[in-house]
Amino acid sequence: xxxxxxxxxxxxxxxxxxxxxxxxxxxxxxxxxxxxxxxxxxxxxxxxxxxxxxxxxxxxxxxxxxxxxxxxxxxxxxxxxxxxxxxxxxxxxxxxxxxxxxxxxxxxxxxxxxxxxxxxxxxxxxxxxxxxxxxxxxxxxxxxxxxxxxxxxxxxxxxxxxxxxxxxxxxxxxxxxxxxxxxxxxxxxxxxxxxxxxxxxxxxxxxxxxxxxxxxxxxxxxxxxxx
Length: 227
Ligand SMILES: Cc1cc2nc3c(=O)[nH]c(=O)nc-3n(C[C@H](O)[C@H](O)[C@H](O)COP(=O)(O)O)c2cc1C
Hints:
- By secondary structure, the chain is an alpha/beta fold.
- The chain has one domain (3-188): Flavin prenyltransferase-like (Rossmann fold, 3-Layer(aba) Sandwich), CATH 3.40.50.1950.
- The protein contains eight helices and six strands, in the order βαβαααββααβαβα.
- A six-stranded parallel β-sheet has the order 3-2-1-4-5-6, with helices on both faces.
- Helix 1 crosses helix 8 and helix 5 (103-110) packs across helix 7 (143-154).
- The longest helix has 16 residues, at 173-188.
- The two termini are 20 Å apart.
- 41% of the residues are buried.
- The structure holds flavin mononucleotide.
- The site of flavin mononucleotide has 16 residues, from helix 2 and helix 5.
């Protein structure tokens, strides 16, 4: 069983990580989670989930948030616990996902500044040559943000913005979240059924500009394999 580390930071978009963690568990992965101090504030504000000031309440509230079955597949570490297994390259992981990733965490990771477990886990993924997926959320982006993302991409990280497409005619926030989560799972090489895959446009006249899109151009068939 592959184990993944999910770092939650103080960027907006905690709905994405609320979709990601269950999707990882359902895909058969073991999941380690840590949340930054700012992440605790945003989690409380956006989703009404209490993680404490340092993430110390996240483990006990995870079941109420994501369901007991999901929580059973997750280990939670305080971000201050720099001695926890994800701090070491000897603790094998299939990858690290920062979701959502603040510009602050992005900046610190981009210069190897590991001030907490989330940043250190990302630092370890880089030094060990393991998958590191960064899901940034900010708008607009300054040159500093863009340069930091470019630096990370050149170092081998995957920059996967919380930027869902609309070509699948999403009908709910869950649909938007699934679009991003599905892309994360694809990059991790996990088989999953999150979201829908593009099947091409309808034949001319059946849909398009000036006509109502009566049919979803994407099949409702679930995803069953990865490229
Ligand atoms: C409600 C709220 C929403 C925020 N949204 C974002 C955001 O989308 N992107 C971002 O980079 N920072 C955002 N911030 C600011 C970060 O939380 C702040 O820069 C923090 O220091 C990041 O710390 P961290 O990287 O340790 O989590 C937000 C803050 C709050 C309170």
